[in-house]
Sequence to fold (206 residues):
Amino acid sequence: MSFLRVLEMLGVAVFAISGALAAGRKSLDLVGVVVTATVTAIGGGTLRDLLLDRHPVFWIADTANLWVIFAAALGTVVWSRRWRPPERSLAVADALGLALFTISGAQIAEAAGLGGVVVVIMGTLTGVAGGVIRDVLTAEIPMVMRRGPIYATACIAGIVVYLLLEMAIPREAAALAGMAAIAALRLAAILWDLTVPVFSLPDRRG
Fold:
Protein backbone atom coordinates (compact mmCIF):
# COMPACT_ATOMS: atom_id res chain seq x y z
CA MET A 1 0.00 0.00 0.00
CA SER A 2 1.44 3.37 -1.04
CA PHE A 3 2.11 6.16 1.42
CA LEU A 4 -0.53 8.34 -0.25
CA ARG A 5 -3.07 5.53 0.06
CA VAL A 6 -2.32 5.15 3.77
CA LEU A 7 -2.81 8.90 4.28
CA GLU A 8 -6.13 8.82 2.46
CA MET A 9 -7.46 5.85 4.45
CA LEU A 10 -6.39 7.37 7.77
CA GLY A 11 -8.00 10.67 6.79
CA VAL A 12 -11.24 8.90 5.88
CA ALA A 13 -11.30 7.08 9.22
CA VAL A 14 -10.58 10.14 11.36
CA PHE A 15 -13.05 12.37 9.53
CA ALA A 16 -15.69 9.63 9.84
CA ILE A 17 -15.11 9.66 13.60
CA SER A 18 -15.51 13.44 13.70
CA GLY A 19 -18.75 13.15 11.72
CA ALA A 20 -20.09 10.48 14.07
CA LEU A 21 -19.21 12.60 17.12
CA ALA A 22 -20.95 15.64 15.58
CA ALA A 23 -24.04 13.51 14.89
CA GLY A 24 -23.99 12.21 18.47
CA ARG A 25 -23.98 15.73 19.85
CA LYS A 26 -27.17 16.37 17.86
CA SER A 27 -28.71 13.07 19.06
CA LEU A 28 -29.19 11.70 15.54
CA ASP A 29 -30.27 8.11 14.99
CA LEU A 30 -27.91 5.43 13.70
CA VAL A 31 -28.70 6.19 10.06
CA GLY A 32 -28.03 9.87 10.70
CA VAL A 33 -24.70 9.00 12.32
CA VAL A 34 -23.58 6.90 9.34
CA VAL A 35 -24.75 9.49 6.80
CA THR A 36 -23.01 12.34 8.63
CA ALA A 37 -19.82 10.30 9.04
CA THR A 38 -19.86 9.35 5.35
CA VAL A 39 -20.32 12.82 3.90
CA THR A 40 -17.72 14.21 6.29
CA ALA A 41 -15.20 11.59 5.21
CA ILE A 42 -15.77 11.72 1.45
CA GLY A 43 -16.91 15.32 0.90
CA GLY A 44 -13.54 16.99 0.45
CA GLY A 45 -12.02 14.20 -1.61
CA THR A 46 -15.08 13.99 -3.85
CA LEU A 47 -15.03 17.72 -4.60
CA ARG A 48 -11.29 17.55 -5.27
CA ASP A 49 -11.66 14.63 -7.69
CA LEU A 50 -14.50 16.32 -9.56
CA LEU A 51 -12.52 19.53 -9.97
CA LEU A 52 -9.43 17.62 -11.11
CA ASP A 53 -11.55 15.47 -13.45
CA ARG A 54 -10.42 12.25 -11.73
CA HIS A 55 -12.83 9.48 -12.65
CA PRO A 56 -14.15 7.60 -10.88
CA VAL A 57 -13.88 9.51 -7.62
CA PHE A 58 -11.73 7.88 -4.96
CA TRP A 59 -14.42 6.12 -2.92
CA ILE A 60 -16.09 4.66 -6.02
CA ALA A 61 -12.75 3.48 -7.38
CA ASP A 62 -11.99 1.78 -4.06
CA THR A 63 -15.04 0.91 -1.96
CA ALA A 64 -12.76 -0.12 0.92
CA ASN A 65 -13.06 3.55 1.90
CA LEU A 66 -16.75 3.06 2.60
CA TRP A 67 -16.11 0.04 4.83
CA VAL A 68 -13.54 2.06 6.76
CA ILE A 69 -16.13 4.82 7.22
CA PHE A 70 -18.85 2.43 8.41
CA ALA A 71 -16.48 0.71 10.82
CA ALA A 72 -15.18 4.02 12.21
CA ALA A 73 -18.70 5.43 12.63
CA LEU A 74 -20.15 2.36 14.32
CA GLY A 75 -17.03 1.93 16.43
CA THR A 76 -17.42 5.51 17.63
CA VAL A 77 -21.04 4.83 18.59
CA VAL A 78 -20.10 1.71 20.57
CA TRP A 79 -17.16 3.43 22.28
CA SER A 80 -19.23 6.52 23.13
CA ARG A 81 -21.93 4.42 24.77
CA ARG A 82 -19.41 3.01 27.23
CA TRP A 83 -17.12 5.99 27.71
CA ARG A 84 -18.13 9.62 27.43
CA PRO A 85 -15.96 11.33 24.78
CA PRO A 86 -13.78 14.17 26.11
CA GLU A 87 -15.21 17.64 25.59
CA ARG A 88 -12.72 18.48 22.85
CA SER A 89 -12.76 15.07 21.15
CA LEU A 90 -14.55 16.47 18.07
CA ALA A 91 -12.01 19.28 17.71
CA VAL A 92 -9.08 16.84 18.05
CA ALA A 93 -10.56 14.36 15.53
CA ASP A 94 -11.27 17.21 13.13
CA ALA A 95 -7.71 18.56 13.48
CA LEU A 96 -6.20 15.15 12.71
CA GLY A 97 -8.52 14.58 9.74
CA LEU A 98 -7.74 18.07 8.51
CA ALA A 99 -4.00 17.33 8.59
CA LEU A 100 -4.26 13.95 6.85
CA PHE A 101 -6.69 14.97 4.12
CA THR A 102 -5.05 18.31 3.38
CA ILE A 103 -1.65 16.82 2.64
CA SER A 104 -3.06 13.85 0.71
CA GLY A 105 -5.09 16.30 -1.38
CA ALA A 106 -2.00 18.39 -2.02
CA GLN A 107 -0.07 15.32 -3.13
CA ILE A 108 -2.84 14.29 -5.53
CA ALA A 109 -2.83 17.78 -7.04
CA GLU A 110 0.96 17.56 -7.36
CA ALA A 111 0.67 14.22 -9.13
CA ALA A 112 -1.67 15.88 -11.65
CA GLY A 113 1.17 18.28 -12.54
CA LEU A 114 -0.45 21.39 -11.10
CA GLY A 115 1.45 24.45 -9.89
CA GLY A 116 2.11 25.40 -6.29
CA VAL A 117 -0.80 27.82 -5.86
CA VAL A 118 -3.32 25.29 -7.18
CA VAL A 119 -1.77 22.58 -5.00
CA VAL A 120 -2.35 24.78 -1.95
CA ILE A 121 -5.95 25.47 -2.97
CA MET A 122 -6.75 21.83 -3.75
CA GLY A 123 -5.13 20.59 -0.56
CA THR A 124 -7.03 23.12 1.55
CA LEU A 125 -10.29 22.31 -0.23
CA THR A 126 -9.77 18.60 0.39
CA GLY A 127 -9.21 19.28 4.06
CA VAL A 128 -12.07 21.66 4.83
CA ALA A 129 -14.95 20.68 2.51
CA GLY A 130 -16.00 17.55 4.41
CA GLY A 131 -16.17 19.47 7.66
CA VAL A 132 -18.25 22.18 6.00
CA ILE A 133 -20.81 19.60 4.84
CA ARG A 134 -20.82 17.99 8.31
CA ASP A 135 -21.48 21.31 10.01
CA VAL A 136 -24.25 22.24 7.57
CA LEU A 137 -26.00 18.89 8.11
CA THR A 138 -25.82 19.29 11.88
CA ALA A 139 -27.07 22.90 11.75
CA GLU A 140 -23.79 24.50 12.79
CA ILE A 141 -21.92 27.43 11.27
CA PRO A 142 -19.04 25.75 9.38
CA MET A 143 -15.76 25.91 11.32
CA VAL A 144 -14.00 27.45 8.34
CA MET A 145 -16.40 30.42 8.43
CA ARG A 146 -16.59 30.99 12.17
CA ARG A 147 -14.97 33.95 13.82
CA GLY A 148 -12.64 32.01 16.05
CA PRO A 149 -9.47 29.86 16.11
CA ILE A 150 -7.64 29.53 12.80
CA TYR A 151 -8.79 26.70 10.54
CA ALA A 152 -8.12 26.95 6.81
CA THR A 153 -5.01 29.01 7.59
CA ALA A 154 -3.54 25.94 9.29
CA CYS A 155 -4.05 23.96 6.07
CA ILE A 156 -2.34 26.60 3.96
CA ALA A 157 0.61 26.83 6.35
CA GLY A 158 1.01 23.03 6.46
CA ILE A 159 1.00 22.71 2.67
CA VAL A 160 3.61 25.45 2.36
CA VAL A 161 5.78 23.62 4.91
CA TYR A 162 5.35 20.42 2.90
CA LEU A 163 6.18 22.02 -0.45
CA LEU A 164 9.29 23.73 0.91
CA LEU A 165 10.61 20.70 2.77
CA GLU A 166 10.13 18.23 -0.08
CA MET A 167 12.81 20.14 -1.99
CA ALA A 168 15.34 19.18 0.68
CA ILE A 169 14.16 15.94 2.32
CA PRO A 170 12.30 12.80 1.19
CA ARG A 171 8.69 13.41 0.16
CA GLU A 172 7.23 11.14 2.86
CA ALA A 173 9.12 12.98 5.59
CA ALA A 174 8.01 16.33 4.18
CA ALA A 175 4.41 15.10 4.17
CA LEU A 176 4.63 14.04 7.81
CA ALA A 177 6.10 17.42 8.72
CA GLY A 178 3.29 19.20 6.86
CA MET A 179 0.65 17.13 8.65
CA ALA A 180 2.28 17.77 12.01
CA ALA A 181 2.31 21.50 11.28
CA ILE A 182 -1.40 21.53 10.42
CA ALA A 183 -2.47 19.48 13.44
CA ALA A 184 -0.21 21.40 15.83
CA LEU A 185 -1.32 24.79 14.54
CA ARG A 186 -5.01 23.88 14.66
CA LEU A 187 -4.79 22.42 18.17
CA ALA A 188 -2.72 25.37 19.39
CA ALA A 189 -5.33 27.71 17.94
CA ILE A 190 -8.06 25.90 19.88
CA LEU A 191 -6.09 25.87 23.14
CA TRP A 192 -4.89 29.47 22.99
CA ASP A 193 -7.60 31.00 20.81
CA LEU A 194 -5.23 31.99 18.00
CA THR A 195 -7.13 33.89 15.30
CA VAL A 196 -6.50 35.69 12.04
CA PRO A 197 -7.24 39.44 11.85
CA VAL A 198 -10.91 40.24 11.27
CA PHE A 199 -11.99 42.58 8.48
CA SER A 200 -15.01 44.73 9.21
CA LEU A 201 -16.37 47.87 7.61
CA PRO A 202 -17.10 50.86 9.87
CA ASP A 203 -20.73 51.54 10.64
CA ARG A 204 -21.52 54.77 8.79
CA ARG A 205 -25.10 55.05 10.02
CA GLY A 206 -25.92 58.23 11.85
About this structure: The two ends are 65 Å apart (CA to CA). The chain has a mean pLDDT of 90.
